[in-house]
Design a protein that fits this description.
There is one protein chain. The protein has helices at residues 24-35, 55-59, 77-88, 103-109, 205-218; strands at 5-11, 38-45, 63-68, 92-97, 117-129, 143-153, 163-170, 175-184, 187-192. It has 238 residues and is of the alpha/beta class. It has a nine-stranded mixed sheet.
Length: 238
């Protein structure tokens, strides 16, 4: 696209959390801004009116970066539908960490994403890159280690993704599809699980690189003309 990508970083909470004194949303927004790759990078928070996701904000958002952990039930269904319509219309969506259990992921992908294994003991997570030629995997090593992370393990009840980009292995032996893409309507969706709030995972250069690549990949490139609804009968001329 000719213009720079406008990004909105959304978070379910406001204020300091774990190793992020200014919130996870600020940490993510800051490294997106510092990359110089994007246009406006704004922040929206669940406690704000309309969760910070007004029609005007979403209409000016090319990619929505959505971090969530445990307050999914507090997201208004009307705002979820607003996001869904924008994704179907071409807005990109990055779902981070426990956003697999968000209403918007469930509504777009159609799964039971609460069903997985999980454990919080701060164990090592090794992230394996599966598709080295994919744009999201650009400049990502074959594998890298997260010293402390929350374990998510299979069976992960989602439809088969369009592309499986990353698989994580944990010290306890579990594995997990930690980086997946989906397409719904005209919108591209990237789910990436590393990012528990108790550990400084978003300070890691590998994680930042993947998220920056994900935003660029998910951004709409064009909006084709699509005709729907009842159409007149126009037989070919003889």
């Amino acid at each position: 696209m000719d213009k720079k990508i406008n990004v909105t970083v959304w978070d379910e909470s406001e204020g300091p959390i774990g190793p992020y004194p200014q919130g996870i949303y600020t940490a993510i927004a800051n490294f997106l801004k510092a990359s110089g790759e994007f246009g406006e990078v704004r922040i929206a928070l669940q406690p704000q009116p309309e969760h910070g996701l007004t029609e005007e904000t979403l209409n000016d958002t090319d990619v929505l970066v959505y971090w969530a952990h445990c307050y999914h039930h507090m997201v208004d269904d009307g705002i979820v539908e607003r996001i869904r319509r924008r994704v179907l219309d071409g807005m990109g969506l990055l779902l981070l960490h426990s956003a697999h259990a968000s209403k918007i992921f469930n509504r777009l992908v159609g799964a039971d994403p609460w069903k997985l294994r999980w454990r919080e003991v701060g164990e090592l997570e090794r992230v394996w890159r599966i598709e080295p030629a994919h744009p999201i995997c650009a400049n990502v090593p074959e594998f890298f280690d997260i010293p402390q992370s929350e374990m998510y393990g299979e069976q992960f009840h989602i439809p088969a993704p369009d592309e499986l980009l990353f698989i994580s292995w944990y010290e306890g032996g579990e594995v997990f599809r930690s980086g997946c893409t989906f397409t719904r309507g005209l919108g591209r969706i990237f789910f990436f699980s590393p990012g528990h709030e108790n550990f400084p995972i978003y300070d890691m250069p590998e994680i930042r690189n993947i998220i920056i690549n994900g935003v660029k990949w998910a951004a709409p490139t064009c909006k084709p003309t699509i005709t729907t609804g009842q159409q007149p009968f126009n037989p070919p001329k003889k």
